[in-house]
Design goal:
This protein is α/β, with parallel strands linked by helices and 268 residues long. The chain has twelve helices and eight strands. The protein has an eight-stranded mixed beta sheet, sandwiched between helices. The protein is elongated. The structure holds NADPH dihydro-nicotinamide-adenine-dinucleotide phosphate (NDP) and (2S)-3,4-dihydro-2H-pyrrole-2-carboxylic acid. It comes from Haloactinopolyspora alba.
Length: 268
């Protein structure tokens, strides 16, 4: 079974590396990229064959499309003549609907839409997948199996994908933003940058493990840290006064709205 990855950027490489680590034979993988030097880099790193987009689609059973949303229209036009009914096309592009993709490919091509995230690079990704209109269970299971090599996978109705994009697709960026802010705070208070970084990163890793291993609600875990009249309560009061929680809600609504607008080709 041959799998082609069209677009070998951040997410394309995460998929490639996940598939290779999961034991998929390199001889059954193909990659494409707009910049030949990037494709050559991946050949050197993974031993994978680089071809052009139409050739990749002709040779592959399953095609993973991992270009930016703004590049999807042109790419689909380029591969349309090479795609065939029954073939599976899996799109990872934010905001691009299965209807948009299906309308640009021959009828009968099965389309699955995925929203992954960058922890896929370390096999700790969270991917949501949704079926297009010509998909059967075998297509969905196939897509699920491919994504599982980069972390967890869950099926969601496509109408939830814009919210998922806002929460888990963009989510790592919010976490890194908070980490940056905490490190800067440590530096402001006189800690060496390396010390602040080590303490913040391990606090993040430990807290994530606590959430995931115990399954406890974050409110319970937060309350356990917050001693009456103590240091945490003093910090949290400031965050509440600053409406940080409300800002998070508004920020993620902005991400969801941007995801919704991408299919219509709204300019950057
Ligand atoms: N990064 C993330 O956290 C996430 C990204 N996604 C989605 O994944 C997709 C890819 O994102 P990301 O990997 O970050 O983006 P990148 O820009 O890193 O990767 C896209 C790659 O596709 C190449 N490309 C563009 N057009 C073509 C084409 N016609 N044929 C072959 N290759 C092409 C680009 O080349 P060039 O460099 O020349 O532009 C680039 O190397 C996006 O649609 C994004 O919405 C989804 C969830 C999370
Ligand atoms: O910022 C973006 O548009 C992409 C989709 C989700 C994460 N990165």
């Amino acid at each position: 079974m041959t799998v082609a990855i069209l677009g070998a950027g951040v997410m394309g490489e995460a998929l490639l590396s996940g598939l290779v680590h999961a034991g998929r034979r390199v001889s059954e993988l193909l990659v494409t990229d707009r910049r030949p030097e990037r494709a050559a880099e991946l050949t050197e790193r993974y031993g994978v064959e680089v071809v052009d987009n139409p050739a990749a689609v002709k040779r592959a059973d399953t095609v993973l499309v991992v270009v930016k949303p703004q590049d999807m229209g042109a790419l689909l036009d380029e591969i349309s003549d090479s795609a065939r009914p029954g073939q599976l096309v899996v799109s990872l592009a934010a905001g691009i609907t299965t209807t948009f993709i299906e309308s640009r490919l021959p009828s009968g091509v099965a389309v699955v839409r995925v929203m992954p995230n960058t922890p896929a690079l370390v096999d700790e990704g969270m991917s949501a997948i949704s079926a297009g209109s010509h998909c059967d269970e075998a297509h969905l299971s196939e897509a699920e199996g491919l994504l599982r090599s980069t972390g967890k996978v869950a099926r969601v109705p496509e109408k939830q994908l814009d919210a998922v994009t806002a929460i888990s697709g963009s989510g790592p960026a919010y976490v890194f933003y908070v980490v940056e802010a905490m490190i800067e705070a440590g530096v402001h208070m006189g800690l060496p940058r390396a010390t602040a970084t080590e303490f913040v990163v391990q606090t993040l890793v430990g807290s994530a493990k606590l959430l995931s291993d115990t399954g406890e609600h974050p409110t319970v875990l937060r309350e356990r840290v917050t001693s009456p009249g103590g240091t945490t309560a003093a910090a949290l009061r400031l965050l509440e006064d600053g409406k940080v929680r409300a800002d998070f809600l508004a920020a993620m609504e902005a991400a969801r709205d941007r995801s919704r607008s991408l299919s219509s080709g709204e300019p950057v």
